[in-house]
Amino acid sequence: MDVKRQIVHTLFWECHExxxxxxxxHAIIKDILGYVIPKECKVIYLGSINDYVTGNDRxxxxxxxxxxxxxxxxxxxxxxxxxxxxxxxxxxxx
Length: 94
Description:
By secondary structure, the chain is mainly alpha-helical. 65% of the residues lie in helices and 0% in strands.
């Protein structure tokens, strides 16, 4: 992995504070779908869901993941990471 990719991966996925957020997001998605998808960067952050999410759930899952990433961008200059509740609020705005 090149340096730029590593930095982005660390900032948006591996950092302890953001990991707590993604764990909560993963739990919410599991509750909504009724089944577990992998808690991996390529699935949760990059949206590579086709192998894990059934056809009827894909659109909803994509929207959920987009809103979760939007919460991250809204909290970018803040010291605290976004909350799952903020993501759900963004979801209701859509």
